[in-house]
Amino acid sequence: MRIAFVQDSGMNESAALLVLSGLLKLGGHTTRLFIEHDERDMFGALRRFDPGLVLIAIDIGGHHWGLGMASRLARDIRAPLVVVGTYPTLELDEVLARPEFRFVIPGECDVAVPALVDALAAGSRDLAAVPGLHWRDVDGQWQRNPSPGYLDDLDVLPAPDVSLFEPYPYLLQFGVRRFVSGRGCANRCSYCYNNELSRRTRSLGRYVRRKSATPFVAEIADSLAKYPAHHVHMGDDLFTHDPAWLREFAPLYRRTVGVPFTCNATPMSLTSETISLLAQAGCHGVAVGVESGDQVLRERILERPARDEDLRAGCERVRKSGILLAAFNLIAMPGETYEQALSTVQLNRQLGVQVPRINFTIPLRGTRMTERAIEEGFFTRQAQADLEREVAAGRFKLGPCFLSPDNAQFERLFRVFQFAIMMGLGDAQVRQLVRSDLAVKAIPFRMLMLYMERTFFRIQWVPGLQMYLHAGHPLGRTKNFNNFIP
Length: 486
Ligand code: SF4
Known about the structure:
It contains 21 helices and 15 strands. It is globular, with a radius of gyration of 22 Å. By secondary structure, it is α/β, with parallel strands linked by helices. It has helices spanning 15-26, 42-49, 63-76, 86-90, 92-96, 112-121, 169-173, 193-200, 213-226, 243-256, 272-281, 295-300, 308-321, 338-351, 368-375, 381-392, 407-422, 427-435, 437-442, 445-457, 461-471; strands at 2-7, 30-35, 53-57, 81-84, 103-104, 134-136, 142-144, 176-179, 182-183, 209-210, 231-234, 261-265, 283-291, 324-331, 355-360. The two termini are 20 Å apart. Iron/sulfur cluster (SF4) binds at residues 185, 187-189, 192, 194, 237, 289. Iron/sulfur cluster is lined by residues 185, 187-189, 192, 194, 237, 289.
């Protein structure tokens, strides 16, 4: 059977979708990706492909686009539509309430989608045996098949099917490729979907799983032999939490792949041994979650376990090793003051962060942080609906989302944040910069952001520009880089 995957832009690449494509091909099926942003007439292209099933992944945050597109697909394309993604996973009842959908699969899809495709290909009308499928029976009633549970042994999965990108050469020419060794995250940060997802799916099995190092390295080597890249990004939420795994991975990767890579890490995991293994493997950069310069905010609002001393010790080891140090930072979180946000600039400076990433705190639906912010009066459900509509319409203007008397200052600080850290400015100088209309307007913060990402991922100018022209600025991304739900 032919299966069409529909996606909004090349920016929102999904590792789980590539694995799903590999699984379907193993079953003898044909898959094809359709990126709306890059197609002149996507519906025409879909009709020519004549799929037996269309799959759309809808993400929290990008769900207004996803729901709108799914409705059009259900109306205009003859093939049945299956809806997957973090949105139906966390907001299942909302999706099931829509009359136009027939098939919905919340959570991981490695078992459910191939089983559904096989059943449809065999002409079966009784879909009760498709694990995890929500489907309408002949009376139009939803039937909810029990979930197959989390796949425990990831080594049984096929390699991600990168050929899915072939219709869009800019994705293959980018030169930077993303690989994922595991699924789930051991942390439970209050603002992240991982927290809610792991809580709700406790009965499905182990949430955090990982491939063995040997097949993972082989997968990267094979993939790069076919589709070369000069840089690899390990897209795992946390890559360094298991020293035994790294001990096996590091020499193998160096010997078999040898392409410089970047990864994400918690400060506590950045021990001398971990850093030396990363350096041995050829790690170019590590991104650490700093998020806030105020430890109380970090612990109470974000529920991140990183203490100042852990951050300082871990970051110092990274710097001494010569590995590039990047940091994730958030601004304008619920209850944050301007003074606390300024402390984030200073902590990044003290830690010697070379690639300081900054983003406004986004209230993701259903997370503990969002719910608490609503209870405490920093946010409203109406504001959430408005924000999501703006995102869907492509009109979302990046800025503070929570109610605060300091929002105007947050906006100004956001624009000078990276510049201030790059220039090593002290507290008084940063305050001055924020007060200066000229500086706030003149600092090209979007360009600076691209420049820093370019440094971290070693992006080359021409493919980088090509990617930018197709997929836009990374700030426009709406996908949660979830590693196991397409
Ligand atoms: S924010 Fe990052 S570290 Fe925290 S739970 Fe989510 S993925 Fe894990």
